[in-house]
Amino acid sequence: MAKKKSDSNVAAENRKARFNYEIVETLEAGLVLTGTEVKSLRGGKASIAEAYATEEQGELWLINSNLPEYLQANRFNHNPKRRRKLLVHRTQLNKLAGAVQRDGMTLVPLKIYFDDRGMAKMELAVARGKNAPDKRQTIKERDWNRQKQRILKEG
């Protein structure tokens, strides 16, 4: 059973992922980071809105994520847009690679957070892209839920 993550530990979140993609499955992956990247993540300025994950040569990589430079690190800083390695079990990697190749799925990062031990983790989703009618349906459902809440609140 997975524990509920508290929002105070979330370093970056991809809020549009659930709107643009139909989430099929989620999993937790570790991140290989340098010291300045961890410091920058703790500052909360990271962006994973445009990021995705891909399998290359038997390893899982996070592409196009932006962890800004840590200002106090001066010349020892990291490259903000560099590729970062994701840590998953071999069986999970084979399952993810199969879903991407066979079914045309995409690996989308949902959030980066720090677990109870202070380790940086990523919630990764196997997702299928939504088309315009699906997005309109999502908007209708969201608006209807807001109206329902207003009606119930008014009594």
Automatic annotation (TrEMBL):
InterPro entries from the UniProt entry: SmpB (IPR023620), SsrA-bd_prot (IPR000037), SsrA-bd_prot_CS (IPR020081)
Tagged with keyword Transport: no
GO aspect biological process, one term: trans-translation
Predominant cellular place of this UniProt entry's protein: cytoplasm
Domain of life: Bacteria
Name of a matching Pfam family: SmpB
GO cellular component: cytosol
GO terms, molecular function: RNA binding
The keyword Cytoplasm is annotated on this UniProt entry: yes
CDD domains attached to this UniProt entry: SmpB
Keywords from the UniProt entry: Cytoplasm, RNA-binding
Transmembrane domains' residue ranges: none
Matching HAMAP family: SmpB
Record-stated family: Belongs to the SmpB family.
Protein role: Required for rescue of stalled ribosomes mediated by trans-translation. Binds to transfer-messenger RNA (tmRNA), required for stable association of tmRNA with ribosomes. tmRNA and SmpB together mimic tRNA shape, replacing the anticodon stem-loop with SmpB. tmRNA is encoded by the ssrA gene; the 2 termini fold to resemble tRNA(Ala) and it encodes a 'tag peptide', a short internal open reading frame. During trans-translation Ala-aminoacylated tmRNA acts like a tRNA, entering the A-site of stalled ribosomes, displacing the stalled mRNA.
Protein name: SsrA-binding protein
